[in-house]
Amino acid sequence: MNISREVVVIGGGPAGLAAALEAKKCGLQQVTIIERDNELGGILQQCIHNGFGLHIFNEELTGPEYAHRFIEQVEQLGIEVFLNTMVLEIDADRTIYAASRDRGFIAIEAGSIVLAMGCRERTRGAINIPGTRPAGIFTAGVAQRFVNMEGYMPGERVVILGSGDIGLIMARRLTLEGAEVECVLEIMPYSNGLVRNVVQCLNDFGIPLYCNHTVIEVHGKERVEGVTIARVDENLRPLKGTESYIECDTLLLSVGLIPENELSKKAGVEIDGITGGPVVTHRRETSIPGIFACGNVVHVHDLVDYVTEEGMIAGRGAAEYIKKGPSKGKPVRIKAGKDIRYVVPQLICPQEIEEDSISLYMRCSRPLGRSRVVLRSAGGEKISQKVIPLGRPAEMIEFKLGKEQLQAMMGHEGFEVSVFER
Amino acid sequence: MKKIDLICILCPMGCSMEAYVEDGRISKLTGNRCRRGMDYAQSEVFDPRRVLCTTVRVSGGKLPVLPVKTEVPIPKDMLKECIKVLAGVRVKAPVKIGERIVKNICGLEVDVVATRSLPADK
């Protein structure tokens, strides 16, 4: 099957949905979403807990409810959707090769592309936990899918490694479904998740959180029988003499998310080594003209509201590319300075910006008290600053730039964002 | 006088607070960095509530389970009992998002609703 479309969005989760809707609202007729699963919504369909949409809708929705708001609009606007379709490859000339049972092998010539593939979970292999390889070890997201959509319990006595939000959410979920969650282990000295989740998922249920701890061995032949845990030093190395054994039949891993960029890399898109996602401009355009990216594929988000905002930016960018052609400006770099882990977008062209304001998104690289986030030009001139009461790597910072700041940014060779603790 | 430790969740600061309870009221609150901490302490100490989000079993649907939630927060100490009730619920597909699955759960005058639509399995 050989077809052509104006805008093709790869991934029908919150990022892809927002991008497709925005491209359609910008006036394009041929907008298509390609989704590998049998329905739209992406990861939201398995996130049955509430807390989504506080910023965008001023409500606390569950994942499926949030997804529904956008899926309904996609249906109303008549956006074409290819479900159960896997994109296999993208060319730099924006030809997409995909396959599905219904359509067979498809080649789509796309006017512009939006990458919205999301991210995947880091596995046991990636963190090299020693021991046997019995059944009963799952990443937290897989366990979440099993419980919330497939209707299976992964086990009855659970140890969770990693105190990021997915691990915390699953600690509560499994407890509600009758499992015994022994503890949550966190290798860092502080929890990685939202305070709200530590309180409502652990404290509410009396589940202990052991910071500065990790799993050093898995035991069990056919099925997990237990894990050996140990305290770690400041270099994250297990301390001899601190080992203890916990009997369990299930080990859940919540040890990190990685943007899913196999397609991007194959197409030759430039990837940022820190975020793991494409280097993007303020329009979320990648290093290949006409290919845009948004959502967790660019950088792992905490709030789906920001994912939706980013999706809209990329969708608008993809539409403008069709309507007005490639952008002519030469973007300059925004570098991550002191105590900033990364900034998105990495590239900006202030003279091209039509909006009244844009936002920079960043994370600090270590926990900080009350601090000033400062945006300077490469030459050292201060453009803008923002005071934050607290800096947590687990909570993304949004730094808004208004008309005045954007004006002041014109003509500089580059920029740097740094954070200074008071 | 009773001292209750709690962590405020209203903003990312996550202030660790101590509430001193006397004669059925909070006579002193320490550790909060703003006034909202007192509002949180008031509700958490005397009437802690949570929205319950879980799944119920479905027959004849595209999926074997349906995600549901209590429409409003319910008393925290009723979570266990409500979970038990919901574990015994069986729903028939198709289901529409927002549909009432259990009315007035455990006599709390709170309904449990579907948080997604689930078509019937062909």
Short description:
The complex is a heterodimer of chains A (422) and B (122). Chain A has helices at 14-25, 63-76, 124-127, 140-150, 165-176, 195-202, 262-267, 304-324, 403-408, and strands at residues 2-10, 31-34, 50-52, 61-62, 80-82, 85-90, 95-100, 104-115, 119-121, 137-139, 157-161, 180-186, 209-211, 213-219, 226-231, 244-247, 250-253, 257-259, 291-293, 332-336, 340-344, 347-348, 358-364, 371-377, 382-388, 397-401, 414-421. Chain A is of the alpha/beta class.
Account of the protein in words:
The complex is a heterodimer of chains A (422) and B (122). Chain A is an alpha/beta fold and 422 residues long. Chain A has nine helices and 27 strands. Chain A has helices spanning 14-25, 63-76, 124-127, 140-150, 165-176, 195-202, 262-267, 304-324, 403-408; strands at residues 2-10, 31-34, 50-52, 61-62, 80-82, 85-90, 95-100, 104-115, 119-121, 137-139, 157-161, 180-186, 209-211, 213-219, 226-231, 244-247, 250-253, 257-259, 291-293, 332-336, 340-344, 347-348, 358-364, 371-377, 382-388, 397-401, 414-421. The mean pLDDT of chain A is 96. With 122 residues, chain B is an alpha+beta fold. Chain B has a five-stranded mixed sheet with strand order 8-5-6-10-9. In chain B, strand 1 and strand 2 form a beta hairpin. The N and C termini of chain B lie far apart (62 Å). The model of chain B has no long low-confidence stretch (mean pLDDT 95). Chains A and B meet through helix 2, helix 4 and helix 6 of A and strand 5 and strand 6 of B.
